[in-house]
Design a protein that fits this description.
This protein is α+β, with helices and mostly antiparallel strands. The chain has a single domain, classed as Nuclear Transport Factor 2, Chain: A (Roll). Strands 1-2-3-4-5 form a 5-stranded antiparallel sheet.
Amino acid sequence: MHRFAGRLARLAIVCAALVGLAPPAHAGPASDLIAKLNTVFIDVMKNAKALGYEGRYQKLEPALVEAYDFAEMTRVTTGRHWRSLTDEQKQQLVAEFHDLSIATYAARFDGFGGEQFEILGEEPAPPDSVRVNNQIVQGSGEPIRIDYLLRQNDGKWRIIDVYLKSSVSELAVRRAEFTDTLAKSGFDGLMADLKAQVTKLRSGAGTGN
């Protein structure tokens, strides 16, 4: 877990752009989705060693698929390049983004040190979105903000971005990486890079961690 927190801190230092927050509004369906996701995270962390990497992946996958709009996130991260991709390439890229996202959580949630998640409230965000302000309180008592931006898709709230340290857009970080690779190496280069990241996460976590 400390590796996951460290990664958040490094991303915040590199990409921080302060975002002002309005006073949190009352909770609603979007917050309910995040609360459900937080419950799964804690359960996986508490049972991390027994589950191993593959077990954590399998337990996290249905919860993350329900919570995240991976197709929309993939579209945004590829920027203008999305329009030039074939339908088959788009499907392959969404599948790989899905795999990378779940692999990242499975690798990082590798133990439990008394952490707790707390939802601080939610507020409207343009366009037609809701931001759920959320934090993880580490065993040491130090909180780390992990906020979520959600938008409705087919009548269901889905996550379309994550703000680390309350200010660093994960989608913006991914977009910078993806568009740079697409410009330099094209679709095949990006797919190879994403597959390599997943392989590294899996091998780094090992089967028993």
